[in-house]
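Figure S4 source data
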Amino acid sequence: MNIFSALDWQRKIYLSGFSGKLPRVPVDIKQLEESARKNMSPQAFAYIAGGAGCESTMQSNRSDFEKYKIIPRMLRNVGERDTRIELFGQALPSPLLISPIGVLEMVNAEADCAVGRAAARLNMPYIFSNQASRPMEEVAAVMGNSPRWFQLYWSKSKELVASFVKRAEQCGCQAIVVTLDTTMLGWRTRDLDVAYLPFLEGKGIAQYTRDPVFQKLMEEPETSDKPRQSVSMQSIMGLIEMVNNYPGKGFFGKLRSGKPIRAVQKFISTYSNPNTTWNDLSFLRAQTKLPILLKGILHPDDARKALDFGMDGIIVSNHGGRQVDGSISTIEALPGVVEVVNKKIPVLLDSGIRGGADAFKAIALGATAVCIGRPYVYGLTLAGEEGVYEVLRNFMADFELTMGLTGCRNIGEITREMLQTGG
C-alpha cells in the first residue's frame, strides 16, 4: 500500500486551491529557486546556489539529463504503483534521499532540525551534514526511529574522524558517507564575489564545537602564522556572530574564554585533509561496522577501487558543481560506474536532480536511488519544516506519476530500454 500516493497529494493541492489555499512553496522548480533567492541574503544565496568557476559543471548537471528521452509505454496496468526500495536492509517508501547541505542556519533558524522533522514524516533518509548548524544528536532526537546517515569530511585529525563516526553510531545513523571531492574548497566565484565564508563567523561547525575530541584540539596552540586582521565595523560584527554562534550562554563569558575564536581557527586548520588516500579507508573501516559509501566517484576506475577496498556503496556526485568547473556531469558518469559495479553494491546519484523525470532517468541508467539537494533548502528558506516537506513530497509525487505514466508499476520495471539518446 502506498501511503504517500501521488494522486492523493495532487488531489490535495487542487482541492486546497479550490478553497483558496495555494501551496506554501512554488511547485515549479525555477520559481522555487527564485522565490527563495528573494528571501535569502546575498551571501546565503551565493553559498547555496553557486558553483565553481564559470559554473559549467552545474549547467552540465542539468543539460545532460536532456540527452536522455523517456519512451512511455501504453496499456500497461498501472492502477497500483509501488515506489518502494530496499537499501542496506531497510525498506524505504521511494528511491529518494536527502543530500547533506551545510550551514542551513543561513536560511532558517531551526536549520537541520527542521529538515530532520520533515524527513521523518516521509521516512526519507536524511544524510546529516558534516558542516551542520545543529549537532547530529539534536537532529536525531527530533527524528525518532526514521532513517538517517552521516556525511564525513576527512579531517586532519584521525581522532576527530573516529569521534564523529562513534557519535554517528550512537545517534542511530545507519551509514557513513565519506565525501571525497572536498579536500580543498573549489574556486567558488559567487562566494568570492561577496567575500564571504560562513565558517569564519562560527556558522556550520556545530558537529565540531559539540565534539569532545575537537574541544581538546582547541586547546592546542596554532603553529601556522595567521595574517593580521584589520579592525573594522564588519570584523567586529563578525566577531559578535562568532561568539553568538558558539554553544552556551553568556556572551561576555564566551568572549573572555576565547573559545569561539579558537574553535573557528581550529576548524579552518583541520576540517579537511588533501593528503587523504585510498589506504586511509582501512582506518575508517576499523572504526565502524556501518555501511560506508564513497561520495564523489565519477570515474569507473575509482568505482573499481571502491570495490577493491571493500566499500559498501557509491554516490556518483560532483558536489553539485561546486568543486571542479568543467567536470563531467553525474548523469554522464553514471553508466560507466554502474557497469563496473555490476550490482555488487548500491550506486546512488546526486547533483542536478530537479524533478521526478530526472530520478526516473537515473534509475533507468542503473542508479539504486538519488539524492535531492538545493531544492529542499529553498523550501526550508520559504516555509521551514513545512516547506521542506512540501518540496520532498512534490518530488515523490512527480516521480511516482512519471513512473506510472511511462508504464512502470514498480522500480524493477524501470530499465534502460525506457530511454532513448540522441535525436
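Figure S5 source data
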Amino acid sequence: MARMIGSMSRSPPARGSGALCLLLASCFFTLTAVAAGVRVPDVRGPLSNPVGEGIGVWGGLEKFGYTVQEYLVSGRANVYRPLSMADALSMMSRDNTKDLGRQASYRAILRRPDVPYTSRILVYKPSDPEKFSGEVIVEITHPGGGGSLLVFGMVSGLFLSHGDAYVAIQHPITFKGLKIADPARYGALSAAGLTQIWGMVAQVGALLRSDSPENPLRGYHVKNLFLTGYSYTGVATATFADYYHAGARMADGAPIFDGYLPFANGMYVRPLDVPVIRLNTQSDFNSFGGLANRRHDGDAPGDRYRLYEVAGVSHANSSPVPLPEAAPPRPVKLKEAPGLPNFGHLKCLADMPHGFEPNDMPVNYAIAQAFLNMYRWVDEGVPPPRTSLLATEPDGKPKLDRNGNAIGGLRLAALAVPAATYGTGRDACFLLGYRLPFSAATMKRLYGSHDNYVRQVERAAREDVARRLIGARAERAMVAHARALPSF
C-alpha cells in the first residue's frame, strides 16, 4: 500500500464524497484547501540491467561519474478534467490560447478520485553521493519518441558537471507505445487518465524528499527539487505550478517543489511562494496569445519571478553544446503518442529565405545559466538578472533592426554582434527558424575586419558572463565559434 507523508490538498478523504461530487457535477477542487496528503508511491526497481535496454535512456555517463537507474512507481491519483495541451488526449483539441492565458481562478475539476496507476521514472545521479550538489531536476517526458527528455537533452552537460540529479517521469500518453515496444519491461504501465500525471509528479517529488527505503535518492542529501520542461513539457510545468503547486506540500507545510523553470511556451504562470524563471524563444513569446501572458519581474517573497525572451532563437533549433554531453538514447521505432500536431515540415522549409541555414542561436547557453541562477536564488537569496522583453509592432510581431534581427529581449553575443539574420517561420511554421548569413561585404561594412568582429564578440560574451546571462564555458564556445567563421 502506498504511504501518506504530508498534506496535499484535495485528495478526497473518501470515495463516497468524490462520487457525490461527480453526481452533483459541481465539485470544484481548489488546491489551497488542505486534505488527505501526498502519497509516497510504491517502487519497483531498479529494473534489470543493463539499463541501456530501457527506451529513451541516455548513456555515456560513466565518464562523468554518473549512473542511471530505471524504476516503476505505483500509487493512486485523482483523475481530473483536462486543463491544457499537457494533459489532453489531443493537444490540438484544446483552445490553447484560452488555456495558456491567465485565469480568474485556478481550480481543478475532479472526475474520479484515488485511481491506481503505474508509471516509470529514470533517475540520473552521481555514483558517489559525496559529489551530489543537492539540486534535483524533475522533468515530465515529452510525448515525441516515446518519451523524450528535452531539457536534459539540451543541457545535460551542466547537470553532469554540476553534480545535479535528474529525474524523468513518464507521461501516461506514452505508455501504450512503450508497452508495445517492450511488453516484458513495460507491460505493467497503466493510467486511468492522462491527468493522473499531476498526482504522479507530486508523489514522485514527495518520494524523492522522503526517508523511504525505496527512495532512489536515499543516502543523497536533497536540498531542492525543481520542475522544468521545454515546449509541451514547459506547458506541463506551468500547468502544475498554476493548478497543483499550492497543494503539493510536505508534512511541515513546505512545498515539494522549490521552483519552476518552464521554457519555450506561452503559458502564464501566476505568483507563487517559490521562484519561477520562464524563458521563451522568439517563436514562443507571442504564441497562443503570449503577449497577454507577460507580467513584470518580481523579487517579493510571494512573487519571485523572471521572464526572459531570447531574441533570434526559434523553438526548434540546432544550438551547439558548450559542454560534453551524455550520449543520446539508442534509436527505437515506437508507436507515437496520439494527439501530436502534424504540420508540413518540408513545406515550412521551402518557405524559408533562399540560402538559409538551420537556426543555431545557442539558447541552451541561456537555459543552462537559468538553472545556475535559480540555484543561487533559492540557496543564497541572490536574484537573477533582469533583461528587457522583445520590442513589438502593433500587430504583436517583433520589431526588427536594419539587419532583420529582433530588437530587445535577452540578446546573446551571436545577436548582439551578428553575423547573420536570425528569424522564425511564418504562420503555422512559427516553431521553425533560420540563420541567413551576412555577405562578406556586409560583414566588412559592419566590422571592418575579422579580428575586430571577434573582439566585439569577446566583449559582448564577457559582458553576458558578468551579468550572469551565460557561463564561462559558453563564453569560450561563442568566441571560438566567431573565430571559426570565414574571414572577410
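Residues 3-274+321-343 form one domain. The mean pLDDT is 90.
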